[in-house]
Write a sequence for this structure.
RNA sequence: GGGCAGGUUCCAGAGUGGCCAAAUGGGGCGGACUGUAAAUCCGCUGAUUCGUCUUCAUAGGUUCGAAUCCUAUCCUGCCCA
């Protein structure tokens, strides 16, 4: 199976330019994917393009990871409803560094290898290009008509929020990246999410007109859940790759919570498991869906891939303890070390021991620990039966919190809903 | 620069002097069922010491009373130059 066939099987090819497959079969090809420095960490959504690069490199080609220092200053308008917020330079620099550090984990940068991965930053070449140079040398090659015809742009123009010139320029800037990499790195292929198709094609067009060369492209489908909602969100927002932002436990839980339909798709896209194994897993899952073998394997593979074997073991242990039926009893028997071990990835909040000794009503307690943003919300949630303490459901707002609830004289396990845990530590 | 239409709670979008913390839909959250699934059903979705308080672009004003009327300002879209 060649690379494209492989990716097709995994459901990772949306649009592909004619000749791309032939190019990949012909020779070792350099290809790139761009990453936006909108935050200082990548999130699970960025995993798809990362995996494109990983597959590419495994197939013997050379991956380039482009960090969009320059494009990040402009903001990609593609399919966005409204004008993007501008990030200041310091933030951008900080974000670029963070993303770069993460990407280094997933690709092989060993310079001894002919297909060693490389990291590039488009700010490096854009910082020296003046506006006049750019519009004369590059802008000339592409018509506004062409740019406006792009679906990603047309929607904004036809919408009622408009689009600034800055954002309109974006596809040209990105297109120039491709041209630059083509001429400087012999890069002939750009990949990305399907929302990038328009921008990518502008790049191949520039390569053709300005360098008289031939460049290729393919995109992968934008990740969505089976019900059409956005992929990569949990109750607490984005699921990040940075363990400081999303702990390995939370990360593990994210994948474990995938629906059956999603899990079957994810396992192909996000893991490097062989076909036979994936087929077997899917079949096993269909026979006994309640065992959730797919989700468990998916969560395991991803947690190890992004974090580590050890992180996975902690996440697994914590998950098994927190979600078993007799947890309320087990909790009481755990030693402090065992507790800390298991609760490692659970968000922790502190409360003063003196306050607890005095006793506190549940609503105030939940609001002060910031487990809920306001007393009103805390009260509603308790009344709706959505809060448990040490795995026992809180029956009413009269409940008072005091030292008698402490586990090992120090901890209280608060549960919001079915699967959101907080460890309160008394100090 | 001129004309027109707009800016409402997370989003879309009603409301055009009191019955408005503001319809409806979506999203989100929670509950029941279950498998930490899907589907379905139910509840919540500004804050609160439950007296009220702060909100309908911003600042003033009219009025007993304004999201709704007036004035200025800012922002957006469309058309004309």
């Amino acid at each position: 199976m060649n690379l494209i066939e492989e990716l097709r099987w995994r459901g990772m090819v949306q649009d592909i330019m004619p000749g791309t497959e032939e190019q990949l079969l012909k020779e070792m090809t350099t290809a790139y994917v761009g990453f936006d420095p909108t935050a200082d960490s990548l999130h699970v959504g960025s995993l798809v393009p990362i995996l494109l690069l990983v597959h590419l490199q495994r197939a013997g080609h050379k991956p380039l990871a482009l960090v969009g220092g320059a494009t990040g200053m402009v903001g990609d308008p593609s399919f966005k409803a409204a004008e993007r917020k501008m990030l200041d330079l310091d933030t951008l620099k900080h974000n670029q560094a963070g993303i770069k550090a993460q990407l280094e984990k997933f690709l092989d940068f060993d310079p001894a290898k002919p297909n060693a991965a490389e990291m590039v930053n488009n700010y490096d070449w854009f910082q020296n290009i003046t506006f006049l140079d750019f519009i004369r040398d590059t802008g000339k090659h592409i018509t506004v008509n062409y740019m406006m015809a792009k679906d990603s742009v047309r929607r904004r123009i036809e919408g009622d929020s408009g689009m600034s010139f800055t954002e309109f320029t974006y596809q040209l800037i990105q297109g120039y990246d491709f041209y630059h990499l083509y001429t400087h790195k012999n890069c002939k292929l750009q990949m990305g999410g399907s929302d990038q198709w328009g921008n990518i094609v502008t790049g191949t067009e520039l390569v053709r007109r300005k360098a008289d060369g031939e460049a290729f492209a393919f995109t992968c489908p934008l990740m969505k859940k089976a019900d059409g909602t956005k992929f990569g969100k949990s109750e607490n927002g984005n699921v990040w790759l940075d363990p400081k932002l999303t702990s390995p436990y939370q990360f593990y839980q994210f994948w474990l919570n995938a629906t059956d339909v999603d899990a079957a798709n994810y396992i192909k896209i996000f893991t490097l498991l062989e076909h036979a194994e994936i087929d077997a897993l899917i079949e096993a899952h269909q026979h006994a869906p309640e065992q959730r073998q797919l989700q468990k394997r998916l969560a395991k593979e991803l947690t190890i891939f992004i974090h580590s074997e050890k992180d996975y073991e902690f996440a697994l242990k914590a998950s098994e303890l927190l979600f078993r039926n007799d947890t309320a009893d087990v909790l009481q028997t755990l030693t402090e070390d065992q507790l800390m071990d298991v609760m490692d990835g659970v968000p922790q909040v502190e409360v003063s021991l003196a306050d607890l000794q005095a006793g506190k009503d549940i609503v105030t307690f939940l609001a002060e620990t910031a487990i809920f943003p306001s007393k009103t919300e805390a009260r509603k949630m308790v009344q709706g039966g959505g809060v448990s303490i040490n795995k026992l459901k809180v029956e009413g707002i009269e409940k008072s919190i005091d030292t008698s609830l402490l586990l090992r004289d120090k901890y209280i396990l608060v549960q919001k809903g079915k699967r959101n845990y907080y460890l309160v530590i008394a100090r």
User: Anything to note?
Assistant: The first strand of chain A starts at residue 15 and ends at 16. Residues 210 and 313 of chain A are 53 Å apart (CA to CA). Residues 3-220 of chain A form a domain with the Rossmann fold fold (CATH 3.40.50.620). The radius of gyration of chain A is 25 Å.
